[in-house]
């Protein structure tokens, strides 16, 4: 981690926030693409979500989604380890001071700690491809998270600074696949309609981020749009939210 008061710096000396050394080798990822997204509160505590991916020699393990929380306790080592196909789940970790790496308490990639258990059915090995979280705090102090899950966008909220989360996105089944998505509860629709009456039907939309106004209200959503190949472009879409 490195930080600065201005986007152009100067930046602080980088420090290691998480190395994976606290994780049992057979239960949790340790390094790789963390996919971390977080918010910092006025008291210096932090809450967020992240993903780890163990990338070491001769290991091709699963990818998991973690949750970061400033108030949570240490997760105990469980006995139910995830299979190689169990990936893209959300878990908790805590930090009381976002600048101090020693205050971060990381959880474990164990099924009992998934914060969205309702998204993992009896035949599912993932929770609908959830990743790329972005977080913000509204004027009432509620923490919101927007993620992409397959082609759709999911929304979750926390009223206790990230201790617990309520899922408001569409239900889906990883065993059934993307056809199970409930688009009526997606953050964005399956088609993109422009003001010139043209439309796009993207293969998927990922990397959601919110543009927040000076009054704390969400004014726009940005996503990476993929039209069928691996090329993407950034779409800025105005919202009609008042919170």
Notes on the protein architecture:
0% of the residues lie in helices and 31% in strands. With 243 residues, the chain is mainly β. The strands form 5 sheets. Strands 6-7-8-9 form a 4-stranded antiparallel sheet, with no helix packed on it. It is globular.
Quote the distance from N terminus to C terminus: 30 Å
Question: What sequence of helices (H) and strands (E) makes up the elements?
Answer: EEEEEEEEEEEEEE
Low-confidence stretches: 27-31, 54-87
Helix coverage percent of residues?
A: under 10%
Overall pLDDT score = 76
Question: What share of residues are in beta strands?
Answer: 25-35%
Which structural category fits the helices and strands?
mainly beta
The major pleated sheet works out as:
4 strands, antiparallel
Output the number of helix runs.
Answer: 0
Determine Rg (CA atoms, Å): 18 Å
Shape: globular
Major beta sheet, strand line-up: 6-7-8-9
Number of strands: 14
TL;DR?
The chain is mainly beta. It contains no helices and 14 strands.
Topology:
Elements lengths: L36 E4 L5 E8 L9 E6 L25 E2 L8 E2 L24 E8 L5 E7 L2 E7 L7 E2 L24 E2 L5 E2 L3 E9 L5 E9 L5 E7 L5
Antiparallel strand pairs: 1-2, 2-3, 4-5, 6-7, 7-8, 8-9, 10-11, 12-13, 13-14
Features:
3-stranded antiparallel sheet; 243 residues; single chain; 0% helix; mainly beta; 4-stranded antiparallel sheet
């Amino acid at each position: 981690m490195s930080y600065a008061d201005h986007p152009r710096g100067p930046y602080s000396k980088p420090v290691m926030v998480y190395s994976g050394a606290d994780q049992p080798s057979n239960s949790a990822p340790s390094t790789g693409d963390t996919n971390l997204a977080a918010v910092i509160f006025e008291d210096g505590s932090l809450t967020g979500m992240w993903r780890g991916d163990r990338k070491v020699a001769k290991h091709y393990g699963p990818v998991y989604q973690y949750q970061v929380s400033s108030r949570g306790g240490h997760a105990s080592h469980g006995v139910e380890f995830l299979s190689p196909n169990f990936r893209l789940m959300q878990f908790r970790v805590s930090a009381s001071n976002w600048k101090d790496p020693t205050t971060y308490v990381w959880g474990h990639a164990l099924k009992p700690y998934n914060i969205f258990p309702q998204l993992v059915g009896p035949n599912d090995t993932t929770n609908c491809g959830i990743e790329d979280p972005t977080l913000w705090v509204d004027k009432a102090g509620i923490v919101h998270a927007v993620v992409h899950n397959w082609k759709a966008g999911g929304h979750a909220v926390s009223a206790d600074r990230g201790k617990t989360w309520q899922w408001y996105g569409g239900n889906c089944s990883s065993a059934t696949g993307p056809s199970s998505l409930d688009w009526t509860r997606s953050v964005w629709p399956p088609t993109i309609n422009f003001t010139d009456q043209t439309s796009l039907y993207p293969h998927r939309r990922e990397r959601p981020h919110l543009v927040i106004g000076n009054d704390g209200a969400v004014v726009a959503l940005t996503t990476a749009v993929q039209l069928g190949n691996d090329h993407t472009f950034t779409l800025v879409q105005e919202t009609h939210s008042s919170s």
